């Protein structure tokens, strides 16, 4: 009973501190505009209470305190010490102002300028830039968030980015240098969603890039450095096994390879526009291995599932040292080193 009363008293004290800080911030935002906008101190107090009760901000604090071992369960410590929470406060305030009925008859350009100024202040104070038009569910944790950006341009600096039309579900965790943005900054529709939709309880590790109008299901774990350009089903783990760096012309129909991974007893080649590429095994002189056969199981534009056969025996465990995969399209070809094949065979 004591612990329950203590927790309730602690939460009440934290709410009081939050409201006090929110009032100070809102009074600063509207200091010279209350008369022109026709709003009162009572209206601002009501907005501050709505931010606490309806925006999801308190859930952000509670989720952070619950998930981060360094916080030791202290909501007050998280609120006062963590830049990620301060950034979420600026985002929640900006988002509530954007939807505030008290400003519905005010020129939207003026309102947008106020919101942009507020977001810029939050960026300077926390090092984290969150676009107010992004929709972020309650309990969002941005850990190690210095340099985090949640904005419209996903290619501006070594930061976390969540695009203007991005949708993020409840209780998601985002680490540094993550991009949740558009697939291309210069093309695509000007209206509607251009950015990913992220489900609930998703973890996105450092350096992950999630691009385009795709959907990531609930409970997905995206490992460090992953590049996601297709839908990911719920309760899936995504991680990088090997990486390729490719320089190409801007031909949207040409093949792009993202990597080759083991998937149980098969191999998966990932990329874009790869449905019609050919795959072969070559030796260290890049001559075709006539005794090896590639067996295609499934082809799509985004991945090819295949296997290896030697003399009709699937997954032959003969040595593959100094051998490579040769991936060929109509206009170019790539080589993937044999360590991928060797790792694949060791798992069998």
How would you characterize this protein structure?
The chain is α/β, with parallel strands linked by helices and 348 residues long. The protein folds into three domains: 124 residues, no CATH class; 114 residues, Hexapeptide repeat proteins (UDP N-Acetylglucosamine Acyltransferase, domain 1, 3 Solenoid), CATH 2.160.10; 91 residues, Sandwich (Immunoglobulin-like), CATH 2.60.40. It is built from eight helices and 23 strands. Strands 3-7-10-13-15 form a five-stranded parallel sheet. Strands 16, 17, 19, 20 and 21 form a five-stranded antiparallel sheet that branches. The chain has a four-stranded parallel sheet with strand order 2-6-9-12, with no helix packed on it. Strand 16 and strand 17 form a beta hairpin.
